[in-house]
Amino acid sequence: MMEQKEEQKSIYKEILEWVWFLAIVLVVSYLIVTFVGIRTKVEGESMLPALEDGDQLLVDKLTYRFRDPQRYEIIVFPYKHQENTYYIKRIIGLPGETLQIIDGCVYIDGEQLAENYGAEVMLDAGTAAEPVSLGEDEYFVLGDNRNHSSDSRVPNVGILKREDLLGRAWLRLWPADHIGVVAHGEKN
User: Fold this and answer.
1) Cα separation of 142 and 63, whole Å?
2) Strand 74-78 to strand 56-60: parallel, antiparallel, or no bridges (unpaired)?
3) What is the CA radius of gyration of the chain?
4) What is d(CA 87, CA 184) in angstroms, rounded to the nearest whole number?
5) Catalytic option among 46, 61, 149, 152
6) Which tens digits make up the pLDDT trace of 68-95?
7) Is residue 149 annotated as a catalytic residue, yes or no?
């Protein structure tokens, strides 16, 4: 009889330990997703050749709490016209700059931007056909596959505010043969 009670206590203790463990895992997972990073999937070809349709990414939400976003970083932001839809683009224009697209090339404050994203000349300058002056916390983003990208050139995306930036693409998790850190910077 004593052994049976001891065994019952042991089972209850084991169940309680598992419940406690699962609660800790859920809290830690919530904190990571809320403050550190989230997973997202690339849909479409607007970031070719840097990112491909179907790539699974881990988005770093922490970096921009400690420093400003930088030119050429690949960022993720929510599309304001459709819930649970996220866009992935590259930062081109920074706060305080004036940007314009002339003959398919990006000009920042009157100087042509030396960049090599995309394989072809931009055919449509969109809203950047005229000079676009960015405010204190505004960013101009473009997809790498410029002729097949909805980005800051189109009004439904437009200029992004810093608060719009969810984070920067950090790790490619899938497909398995492309697992690794996402390259940012001037050359990809």
Assistant:
1) 21
2) unpaired
3) 23
4) 17
5) 46
6) 999 999 888 888 877 777 888 999 999 9
7) no
User: What is the reported pLDDT for 101?
Assistant: 92
Cis peptide preceding 49, ω within 30 of 0: yes
Is 41 assigned a catalytic role? no
The CATH number of domain 39-181, selected from 1.10.150.170, 3.40.50.1820, 2.10.109.10, 3.30.565.10: 2.10.109.10
Rounded Cα distance between 82 and 172, Å, is 24
pTM: 0.75
All structural domains of the chain with their residue ranges:
39-181
Q: How confident is the model at residue 188 (pLDDT cuts 50, 70, 90)?
A: very low
Q: What does the pLDDT look like over 108-134, one tens digit per residue? A: 999 988 877 765 788 888 899 999 999
Long-range contacts of 67-74 (CB under 8 A, 24+ apart): 68/162, 69/94, 69/139, 69/162, 69/165, 69/168, 70/94, 70/184, 72/115, 72/184, 72/185, 72/186, 73/168, 73/184, 74/47, 74/50, 74/168, 74/169, 74/182, 74/184
Catalytic annotation, pick one of 5, 29, 41, 89: 89
